[in-house]
């Protein structure tokens, strides 16, 4: 039988597309695999609360990551390191409640899987049972393959995360990974290790675009890039960065699509001036 090419398997009307498709049921990891076969690119965003997640879900974002970037972007910590499993479970449950279509991926925080596969299974089970996520994410390539294997064997879909892994900031800093022949070979080994362990997708963070393109060609699972060039199957951004809420400088790979910090700041100043000047509330905002 002749094999169909990716272009030939793409539905001509785009009805099954992850973004812009007509489906309304919750997206599963099988839909993600089918998108890779069709050669379809897709967007992913982080989300940390029900209301923001509902906006992204209504906009058609097919995969939402309750990232442990919540540490810096939502909970006021310096990094992702202090985030606890209790916090991730609470935030993930809120994002699940606020959405009906997106696949929700719950991040496993630092200290919730490093002790070994059984430790990982216990923690991931909480995210699946208590929060209702459809998949979990954990950091590490070869070093995390045993954890991934047991989770997948137990029926929990896993998104892996290699390249820059922020939970290891104290050891590796925030630096580009995979530069130079040896580091590039290690990244390729990490990518194959997580695929062989059964991960359904892999995040590539802050790696050279050429290397991310090679990993994307070699793997049969989708790659999700952040600071990894244009050739990955999917792209993820931290929502507070891309909508301009994060204060100060954001990484070079971020494109700012809005300036929410300015919009919100101006709106609350207007409210404060109305209150001080006696122009809020007006008759129309009052009950009698
Ligand atoms: O926690 C997070 O937001 C992440 C993304 C940057 C991939 O891991």
From TrEMBL:
<feature type="region of interest" description="Disordered">
    <location>
        <begin position="1"/>
        <end position="21"/>
    </location>
</feature>
<feature type="binding site">
    <location>
        <position position="68"/>
    </location>
    <ligand>
        <name>Mg(2+)</name>
    </ligand>
</feature>
<feature type="compositionally biased region" description="Polar residues">
    <location>
        <begin position="1"/>
        <end position="12"/>
    </location>
</feature>
<feature type="active site" description="Proton acceptor">
    <location>
        <position position="205"/>
    </location>
</feature>
<dbReference type="GO" id="GO:0000287">
    <property type="term" value="F:magnesium ion binding"/>
</dbReference>
<dbReference type="InterPro" id="IPR040442">
    <property type="entry name" value="Pyrv_kinase-like_dom_sf"/>
</dbReference>
<dbReference type="Pfam" id="PF02548">
    <property type="entry name" value="Pantoate_transf"/>
</dbReference>
<keyword id="KW-0489">Methyltransferase</keyword>
<keyword id="KW-0808">Transferase</keyword>
<dbReference type="InterPro" id="IPR003700">
    <property type="entry name" value="Pantoate_hydroxy_MeTrfase"/>
</dbReference>
<dbReference type="GO" id="GO:0015940">
    <property type="term" value="P:pantothenate biosynthetic process"/>
</dbReference>
<dbReference type="GO" id="GO:0003864">
    <property type="term" value="F:3-methyl-2-oxobutanoate hydroxymethyltransferase activity"/>
</dbReference>
<dbReference type="GO" id="GO:0005737">
    <property type="term" value="C:cytoplasm"/>
</dbReference>
<protein>
    <recommendedName>
        <fullName>3-methyl-2-oxobutanoate hydroxymethyltransferase</fullName>
        <ecNumber>2.1.2.11</ecNumber>
    </recommendedName>
</protein>
<feature type="binding site">
    <location>
        <position position="139"/>
    </location>
    <ligand>
        <name>Mg(2+)</name>
    </ligand>
</feature>
<keyword id="KW-0479">Metal-binding</keyword>
<feature type="binding site">
    <location>
        <begin position="68"/>
        <end position="69"/>
    </location>
    <ligand>
        <name>3-methyl-2-oxobutanoate</name>
    </ligand>
</feature>
<comment type="subunit">
    <text>Homodecamer; pentamer of dimers.</text>
</comment>
<feature type="binding site">
    <location>
        <position position="107"/>
    </location>
    <ligand>
        <name>3-methyl-2-oxobutanoate</name>
    </ligand>
</feature>
<keyword id="KW-0566">Pantothenate biosynthesis</keyword>
<keyword id="KW-0963">Cytoplasm</keyword>
<dbReference type="GO" id="GO:0008168">
    <property type="term" value="F:methyltransferase activity"/>
</dbReference>
<comment type="function">
    <text>Catalyzes the reversible reaction in which hydroxymethyl group from 5,10-methylenetetrahydrofolate is transferred onto alpha-ketoisovalerate to form ketopantoate.</text>
</comment>
<dbReference type="InterPro" id="IPR015813">
    <property type="entry name" value="Pyrv/PenolPyrv_kinase-like_dom"/>
</dbReference>
<comment type="pathway">
    <text>Cofactor biosynthesis; (R)-pantothenate biosynthesis; (R)-pantoate from 3-methyl-2-oxobutanoate: step 1/2.</text>
</comment>
<feature type="binding site">
    <location>
        <position position="137"/>
    </location>
    <ligand>
        <name>3-methyl-2-oxobutanoate</name>
    </ligand>
</feature>
<feature type="binding site">
    <location>
        <position position="107"/>
    </location>
    <ligand>
        <name>Mg(2+)</name>
    </ligand>
</feature>
<dbReference type="GO" id="GO:0032259">
    <property type="term" value="P:methylation"/>
</dbReference>
<comment type="similarity">
    <text>Belongs to the PanB family.</text>
</comment>
<keyword id="KW-0460">Magnesium</keyword>
